[in-house]
Specification:
400 residues; alpha+beta; Peroxisomal Thiolase, Chain A, domain 1; 10-stranded mixed beta sheet; two-stranded antiparallel sheet
């Protein structure tokens, strides 16, 4: 079986909820990322794209009806370029990359564009459809921005707790203090700020036309655990042991990401050499409230399938849904042979950069490839936790 390679990547800056990207539709965000990655490969004839695989977690509003195909059409690609949209919640665009890489490995296409988009600002409220016209009772509108909605009554209630409460349970299970969470969160902001200042993200991020947003909107330079300690817990009161705050969890965001994948033989057609090879993939599942810990197993699977161990890994990109679940995963990986926790999210993470659900997997994969290019190291792993108890991971091998 042949290999799949990463050739180029682009993303929008990530905007805050109701922030700079609030007036931009999610299909337009997807179009910006798609055009951004193709602009990096001007020699590639868009008609040669065998498929587009796009991630989106909401799909209840302007991102409905196969937003991947909408982006293809809005971007002006030939109508012959097909596209699909996949939903694995927070892991949607990493799932898209995994699907795209398998498509190339199987020989079904030589060039595949993958990515994802999310506008959590523009996610609509929905009403359940009544079984008959004009029911006598009240009907409650439900937000589609994040979390459970219209829950099946047969689902065990302990599985349908909020994402925040699930991570409070995780903090209890592993004894992870508020102080460790705040320290991790402050590190994310300061590393992201430093990476932007050093120009690391300049080649990865493309502007959104008509929007003045030069970098990710949620980064807070000069963050410290002391400052974060002053925030109130968001899901449990402090007197009840609450540890998770708006400062040590990822925010709600808008944004899009795209990655160009291809076979080794596609290099001439694409017009540039590949940057990294997809060396291993992993997917895992746990009980829904423990979703934040699921990347531990997913990364282990990806390493095993790549034929390497944690001792070979020089860079890790872990999506920071919550500081507590990130700390729990890093602790577990250290026990399994990760040598240095400092290689995890060395350019900042989602707590600072943001987590527009469908776009985050593409972001961490592109950041991982760029980090390996910068350092010259061989292997890295990207991992992401997913609501309702899942996770994905991908190992990249630097070939540049």
């Amino acid at each position: 079986m042949r290999s799949a390679y990463l050739y180029a990547a682009a993303r929008t800056p990530f905007g805050r909820l109701d922030g700079a990207l609030a007036e931009v539709r999610p299909d337009d965000l997807a179009t910006v990322a798609l055009r951004g990655v193709l602009d990096k490969t001007p020699d590639l004839d868009p008609a040669a794209i065998g498929d587009v695989v796009w991630g989106c977690a909401n799909q209840a509003g302007e991102d409905n009806r196969n937003v991947g195909r909408m982006a293809v059409l809005l971007a002006g690609l030939p109508v012959s370029v097909p596209a699909t949209t996949v939903n694995r919640l927070c892991g949607s665009s990493l799932d898209a990359a995994m699907i795209g890489s398998r498509t190339i490995e199987a020989g079904d296409a030589d060039v595949v564009v993958v990515g994802g988009a999310e506008s959590m600002t523009r996610a609509p409220w929905v009403l359940p459809k009544p079984s008959r016209a004009f029911p006598a009772g009240n009907i409650t509108a439900v937000s589609t921005t994040l979390g459970w909605r219209l829950v099946n009554e047969n689902m065990p209630p302990e599985w349908t707790v909020s994402l925040g409460e699930a991570n409070e349970l995780l903090a209890e299970r592993f004894g992870i203090s508020r102080e460790r969470q705040d320290e991790f969160a402050a590190r994310s902001h300061n590393l992201a700020d430093a990476a932007w200042a050093a120009g690391f993200y300049d080649d990865l991020v493309v502007p959104v036309p008509g929007v003045d947003l030069p970098r990710d909107e949620g980064i807070r330079p000069g963050s410290s655990a002391r400052k974060l300690a002053g925030l109130k817990p968001s899901f449990r009161p402090a007197e009840a042991g609450g540890t998770i705050t708006a400062g040590n969890a990822s925010p709600l965001n808008d944004g899009a990401s795209a990655v160009l994948l291809g076979s080794e033989a596609a290099a001439d057609r694409i017009g540039r050499a590949p940057l990294a090879r997809v060396a291993g993939r992993g997917v895992s599942a746990v009980e829904p409230p423990m979703f934040g810990y699921a990347p531990v197993e997913a990364a282990g699977q990806a390493l095993a399938r790549a034929g390497i161990t944690w001792a070979d890994i020089a860079a890790v990109e872990l999506n920071e849904a919550f500081a507590v679940q990130s700390v729990a995963c890093v602790d577990a990986w250290l026990a399994h042979g990760l040598a240095d926790p400092g290689i995890v999210n060395a350019k900042g993470g989602a707590i600072a950069i943001g987590h527009p659900l469908g776009a985050s997997g593409g972001r961490i994969l592109a950041t991982l490839a760029a980090r390996l290019q910068e350092s010259g190291d061989r292997y890295g792993v990207a991992a992401i936790c997913i609501g309702v108890g899942q996770a994905l991971a991908v190992v990249l091998e630097n070939v540049s």
